Records
---
Amino acid sequence: MDEKGIYLDNNATTMVDPTVVEAMMPYFTEQFGNPSSMHQFGDKVGRALKKARQQVQALLGAEHDSEIIFTSCGTESDSTAILSALKAQPDRKEIITTVVEHPAVLSLCEYLEKDGYTVHYLKVDAKGRLDMREYQRLLSDNVAIVSVMWANNETGTLFPVQEMASLARSAGVMFHTDAVQAVGKLPINLKDSDIDMLSLSGHKLHAPKGVGVLYLRRGVRFRPLLRGGHQERGRRAGTENAASIVALGKACEMAMASMTIEKTNVKAMRDRLEKGILEKVSHCFVTGDPGNRLPNTCNIAFEYIEGEAILLLLNKMGIAASSGSACTSGSLEPSHVMRAMDIPFTAAHGSVRFSFSRFNTMEEVERVIEAVPPIVEKLRKLSPYWANGKPVEDPEKAFAPAYA
Amino acid sequence: MWDYSEKVKEHFFDPRNAGAVEDANGIGDVGSLSCGDALRLTLKVDPETDTILEAGFQTFGCGSAIASSSALTEMIKGMHVDEALKVSNQDIADYLDGLPPEKMHCSVMGREALQAAVANYRGEVWKDDHEEGALVCKCFAVDEVMIEETVRANNLRTVEEVSNYTKAGGGCSSCHEGIEEILTRILAEKGETFDPNAVAGEKKKGSSGLTNLQRIKRIEELLADIRPNLQRDHGDVELIEVDGRNIYVKMTGACAGCQMAATTLGGIQQHLAEGLGEFIQVLPHEELARRAAMGA
């Protein structure tokens, strides 16, 4: 594993499971037919897509396989859901979402605001939790769609989407959830929920990049994003990405089979890492809502140092993680998720996310626990907020740079 | 992953002059916590000779912020303070074999810390006049504040004009939507609307009414206005010939062969046209030779 490094960035993307690769390979070679064709070449691929659709249906607990629409990615699924709701209900000009959504939803909403739509961004508290009373107050006949993520990509914090979907249903409002981080990590049973639409992304659950799904509950009014051929029952035109769809089906089957591993092994590794780091490093804390989050995600804010510097030093030791610091994205501000939770700037810039998968091992966890403390110490020695092994007294005053 | 040069990596993994200098007599604290960068530069300056004897840094920041700080301290040790003040952010970036455009502000921070530390040594108070915005043009590292200020100061109304004045949008053109948004917003403040079909620099006046000599002198003056901008990028411009409405110039230094040469010429043309109050065309001097050869 040494030469391959230690991969703890599974919320960014995951390794394609070798079994999944094996399942998709024939669809690049002998199974090249167009599933829409009448002949045997197309028919075999058509059957493979049908099977994949059922595998996705099973993982999501959807009532019908026709509720599964294959797309190119999570972002496409999100855009399709939100734009469809607006197009299908032209009299409704409001959207409800949250301040901590993925850019796939946030950027679209900001763009729609320029087109005259009103977007309500639900705020979060210091642990990243929503105020349900604020949400209920905003639900009205003017709202076209509620779009709320199931699990936060940075902190793993879970939103009560089932409850929120029920409230939306009672108010007669469509409900969409971006569940790209939740699918495969948590049991999901859509037929017993009031969720109308759900986005998932293949590469977050050991399928390849470039394939996603929009779950669309039967009977929910829909307007396609892409019109053209009759693929996906006319709801998403364009020749199917057959090999990747087959792969996603297989990945869903495998995620279903290893669901308990997420709750046991994966969670145990995450908890061990978190405990190990918090014991050895002073002035750091877990962000988000530790009692209510994905089993694979751990986000630790290291105070008085900056995340990109931490990542570069981790990377030098072969350890892959990610950060909410401004510098890792090229923007000037730290992660909008950290800011929304009111994490102080000195800590928000030093937030590091470690995200696991079933392919990690406890041995790797121990190595990371060993690696982190000297890295933090090295950077704190360079920091103007740190002196003699502790933060300087009254850091904000001792170091108050010009134009802060 | 950032495309950091080997030099940047070297200065990040093994920073020089880290930590505060003891008995420092010049301290500069600059940065912006919201941007995730802050730097304290401590200098020990010989009061007799004004020579920087020692320099140390403490940085809260990313890899390139730490590398820029390290590079700066290496560069200025042994320099006279006046000489050190001439170190530009581009010099710091050059010392590190370049920085990604998103990271140029790290080298700006280094230069500002130096100015602040020298001011502190001299018993003056350094005041920063520089504000940073979100990066819009990644090809040429131009931020939102820079574009906004330039648009306001020069009453710009097209993307092309913004490219001519700031370079923003002159490369891959992916940021044109962002530039249009800025123009839309600023024009709206004046009660105007952004017109995507407007032609750059429409307001052309008639002939300037200057004598030939006055006109050439005026052109030289106008070129002198632009020169500092070009020199900042290690380039320059030279006036070769004035033939009626055709003004031939030679781009020198880094401007020669720059992929932005056409845009730069466009910017010069705009500036000259406005300054002279007449329609003119700025052409590269090669064109003069070509036209002569054709026996025109």
Note: Chain B has a mean pLDDT of 86.
---
Amino acid sequence: MIKASDVAKGTFILINNQPHVCTERDYVNPGKGSAFVRLKLKNIKTGSVLRQTNKVQDNLEDVSVEYHEVQFLYADSENYAFMDTKTYEQFTIPIEGEEEKRDFLKDGENYQIVFWEQTPIDIKLPTKMVFTVSEAEKAERGDTVSGATKVITCETGLKVKVPLFIKQGDRILINTETREYQERVNS
Amino acid sequence: MESILRQRVMRRARFSDSVRMYFRTSGYAEVDTPVLSPFLIPEPAIEVFRTEYLPPSGPARPMWLAPSPELWMKRLLAAGAGDIFQISRSFRNCEYGGPHHNPEFRLLEWYTVGTGYLDSIGVAEGLFDHLIAQLVPGPRASLLAPPFLRMTMEEAFFRYADIDLAGCQDVLSMRAAGEANGASMTGASTWEQAFHIAFLTLVEPRLPRERPLALLDYPALVPTTARRRPGTPWAERWELFVDGVEIANCYTEETDPAALALLVQDEEERRHGCRTSHEIDRGFAGLFPPDFPTCSGAALGLDRLEMVFAGEKSLEGVIFFPFSAIVDGQSGTEA
């Protein structure tokens, strides 16, 4: 069991015997009411979305999951392909519903995959990842207003707003949750 | 060029000055009341912070950090202080994080003698007009500009959840109405819990956001110090939502000692389910003299208001040392 107050984004819980992952979690304490958490939950099997509100002290049924270290191999039109780094077993995860993760999957890079009852159910991205700038326009001379940005493209196709001084070939740190530039990385 | 930190410092100082200027020029006197209290009004929805006073000799005396200045401001009001306002440090324990909660926060509370809750909407609209003129929030001004939208809670439940709230006056009917409209009500064991789960799941996410919204006439079954509208299931209470964020709570204040004594007794019993306990303010129910005029009181989360005026998504955008940063051991604010 897990207290509703301890459910966070990425927590797996069982609702009506169906595994769900929490995709949004909002703590609300109405002016004169009990404290609640408002959860947005995605059914891992069907992809359907469920919104529910729980008292913070409610007990929810947590899901026992396993984390496997895997290497990303490639993506085709329908699936992401991975290889378990311990067993060398290859498997796929459907892209549908996970399209936004494509920009963060680098060929040959290691990731963690969540397994529930021997089935891969979720790709865990590190909160911050380093990418290489593959396309960047040069900053215009004189365009030095503080805070000015430009959009660059990384090796996975990820497009990010960055400061003007970032150039092609630079390595930059990106927050995978907000898709925002963090800093330039010295190589 | 000013650093980002300097800009934030100046923005926060200007915001507080502007709020004070509005109330002072509107005839309100600024007061200051204790944060450290030997007793509190019982409010089961609020967990509190406990500390101790150590006298020069003798045993320690338990004290609590006030979750709002209400118990002291009402003493001033009842004693004839007239129209008053305060920006107070307030403390609420067991906050579970998120962008809109900090255990220590600033509460703007104001009381107006001789007026009811609907008049106080005008006071809040005047405050917003004043702040827009002083702070020039740019394109966000339309989200903040009066006149506020007005909608009753009954209409909001009917419009967004297809629920006849007036017909749901017991826990079973409230739970059934929530379930019938798609909310999971399994955790609701009291009427107040069932109402809030239905409200938070079905109604609040759909409330209009294009202008500030005063949501009027809350159910009297949610216990508060708001006066009940005679002959109706509603209390004379509104809450203000700005861009989907709950900002303020206002009542026509109940001043009848018998009604307040019942409320205190009921709230004291319901506090048994809380994680924290405190001494009860035994004098609260009898504060107001029998001939005390109608008055209205409003409490507004000032950090949240500053957040929406600044276009920030989190209190961390306006508080220099948010609680999460303090407890994580970070020493300062990002410049």
Note: The first strand of chain B starts at residue 29 and ends at 30.
---
Amino acid sequence: MPGAAAATDAVQAAAPNARGLRADALRERMALLGLSAPAFLLVFIAMVAPMIWLFGLSFLADNGSFSLEHYRRLIAQPSYGRIFLTTFNVSLLTTAICIALGYPLAYVLSQLPQRVANLCLIAVLLPFWTSLLVRTYAWLALLQRKGLINNWGIELGLWDEPLALVHNLTGTLIGMVHIMLPFLVLPVLGAMRAIDRDYLKAAANLGAGPVRAFWQIFFPLSMPGLLAGALIVFILCLGFYVTPAVLGGGKVIMVSNQIANDIELFFNWGAASALGVVLLVLTSLFLFIASRFMRFEAMMGGAHSK
Amino acid sequence: MKSRAAVPITIRGLAKHYGDVRALDDVSLDVRSGEFLTLLGPSGSGKTTLLMVLAGFIRPDQGSLKFGDTEVIRLAPHKRDIGMVFQNYALFPHMDVAANIAFPLKLRGVNASDTERRVASALEMVKLGGYGARRVDELSGGQRQRVALARAIVFEPSIVLMDEPLSALDKQLREQMQIELRQLHVKLGTTTIYVTHDQREALTMSDRIAVIAGGRVQQLDTPRAIYEQPANRFVAEFIGESSFLKVTREGSDVRCAGQLLRVSVAPPASGPSLLMVRPERLRILGPALPGDGPRNSENVLEARVTEVIYQGDTFLVQAVLADGGRIGARGIASAGAMARVPRVGEPVRLALRVEETVLVADEGG
């Protein structure tokens, strides 16, 4: 058809190279997608597939048939409720203590000259270079009945009887706070360093003394970092295993410890999976609620956009 | 909104050293009550340091600073009660526009209804009525600038400081804001100190300009005097375009490239001086046109054209004198004038009014 050919020619003439350019754009996008394919694959094999498997396991009875018995048991037995309560309790306490210790620490670091602050930051990060297990057992050596702290305390006459510092909630919290502190300090420090000093100058110029300038300007502006740090600490705490196991002495049973028990003692994969799924769902729920109250990107960035 | 009675500012012997660098070198300055005074200088001249000392953010080594009769040099910044517009505006990002402007009022215990009324009136004043509920990051640069201004004047301070507030805006908006700031100043009557490195901005806005360089006040005068009778070569070079020509004294006149020139002010008895010529103050005389010769009130400089540059509104003729001195002359680029512009290589006569034949000391900066 000569008419149609003429029309195509007309289009070609009106929009030169449009088709070729579109094809190039498409090819570029496909190439980019192709490059990220290995990463997608890795995430699927390492994260998504095991999760689906875990999910499936939790719905299987011992004989291999579909059943809700694991979930029923979670609801029926009050001991499970207590375990979840302990888990959230310990996590909240750890987070609270981390904030109480970490926020002032980050504030001091943020006010120091950069070089000094970096040296101090290395001290904060030093524990990261040691194995978590080693750190936990080190606390055991320090805190136990005949440990360093009790020996010194009694020798110096500060207290007469050995204090119960370990194999209980106290020991667990000491160990967990020590391990979690950098996760709080780093995002908070990042947020604090991103605060333009001119905001504080402006506050002073407008009549705010140092205390008011801190609470009305500095603290709110550091909030995204604090929320990010607190959330990271809290979520990491929910799945904590080693420290409560070693320093809790069987008195602090968190979900992870119960999962280990279910598998090691009872070889009950279904029950363990169900616990895992419930913890995952609760954590996701918590994250979802948290994200409703704050802007997530701002939080993860740590810094406040100007 | 009318501000409290404006106060004069008296600065005496302010000095601030950073190691060997003298950021402020014995600065004394009197700012009149209700005046718009601009601190003008290149970067690193000490103008911002001086402003920061006034605001209380930099502690000087010595000196005296009085607002009215009150010595404030050791007063903490939050007790000085002066409004300030920061270069990057420093609007609090976690507060909306109204909360930003209400901030200084809240700190002063103004009640809610008064606060609301005054915030609204401050917003009206900067032509942002109804923007109270906007978030700061939703505003354009010019709007932020206005909010920062509203925040600085809402608590009716008797002194307002501005640290290059227009430097982040594009040229057109900047020129518009210059005029608005000026009008606002007239309306409020506050003593205003304005820092800029933009000489045109300083000339446009100020009652008086203090030219600062090397931590010292080089000249303090009205824009016209600064432009037409600069105190030294630095001031002349920093403000506007100018050519500097070597001269020798000859009685009450001076000789420049072999030509005798009459001057308005007798040359100083000692020290080298230079003839300063602003290109737009020169009249380009046609080489042989009758009736276009020099007038009695004018000096004439003979030169040879080296370049003619068309610049839209004006054209610039660059020429060289007999002694090799370079001189530039500017004319309005009207069709008639363009037709008479001399060509490259041709001789040209440049006429300069006697009262605009100004000598400057060959020093400064």
Note: The first strand of chain B starts at residue 9 and ends at 18.
